[in-house]
Amino acid sequence: MSLPDPIPLYGPAYKRDPYPLYERMRAAGPIHRVLFPSGVIAWLVTGHAAAQRTLADPRLGKNHDLGNDRWRARASIMPEPQHSQLQAHLLHQDAPKHTAMRRLVTDAFAPRRVEELRPRFQEMADALLDALPDSAGTADLVQCFAARFPFQVLAETIGLPPHLAARFRREWGKVVAPVGPTDPGRAAYEALLRELQAYIAEVVADPGEGLLGRLVTARDDGELTPEELDSMIFQLLVAGQEPVTNQITTAVVALLRHPAALERLRAEPGLMPAAVEELMRLDSAFELTTWRFLAEDADLHGTRVPAGDSVIVSLCAANRDPERFPDPDTLDLDRAQGPHLAFGHGVHFCPGAALARIELRIALGTLIARLPGLRLAIPDEDLSWVPAVLGRGVSELPVAFDRPGCPRSGG
Question: Quick check: 150 and 245 in contact, CB under 8 A?
Fold first, then answer.
């Protein structure tokens, strides 16, 4: 039986606004063949109910060893030795290994602990806005805030020693973006990988006394292999901050597109927890999940999916499913919020969800309180959306505001 041509999931128009395409895909059915820029053909799940079932389906594994030769030929972009040394983290593990590795990090991101750190996080957010020039009424919120605040929070949370935190380069996070072997940028990509790997080696040699130190102890006690340790540090440093950076930008863009909601939040800051949930539902920084695989050919939502083909869930498409969220394209601060899927679902639900929620509440609350008259400094259509395969966000966010140097929010 011939298969339908895959639907391309790339290009500036798609990254700027993927939701019309997702709407058409949901209407046509819950699962579709799609094409990624690396040439990978995958199966994409789009509806909310189908997404939940897929994310909790015990037949689907995350370990890359389950991928077939067709997938591996296109998707194993990271070269050896880095693929073996940096990809053995939580996102690519199944039980019981996943259970054991996840247990090592949960205490550091527990809701009670991150709530205790809230005053320190607020100090960080205020300090970043204090650093804005008094004479300026414009700024790039990515450069001056969204790309810096999440890393500072992460470093504090995981106990990254300050001298190492000061040397971390944000460009290293780009190693998760596929750059194929024939791409002109391949040499620069591999250089970034080697630099990041050398940095991780320094962290392992001097991890401090927090979570990083406990992970090194777990390696010494035989609970982790050296490759698993390096991979977990890689995941913390990259996945632990860049999605929050992107979520800050998508949330700010959404609020600037809905000025009445922005002003209401300024007047009613108590709405912020509910607003953060609605903003994540409306435009999640985790647009797509990472790969899942069936160990054998099986039916998935009425479609026969071959063993080892990659199965991906569109969290953004699920979060705008009208069968789950009425009028889903509207930002509604009073929405009777059901469970969105911005942090995933099932055993791979994001372990840093509580931390991310606090970061977003502080970030948005501080920006709104201290930058009155906040507005885009360029036309909306000129925003540059990051070309990342799995995530959403803008690479720059030029804004204008009325009175720089406003009093601190008070936390």
Answer: yes
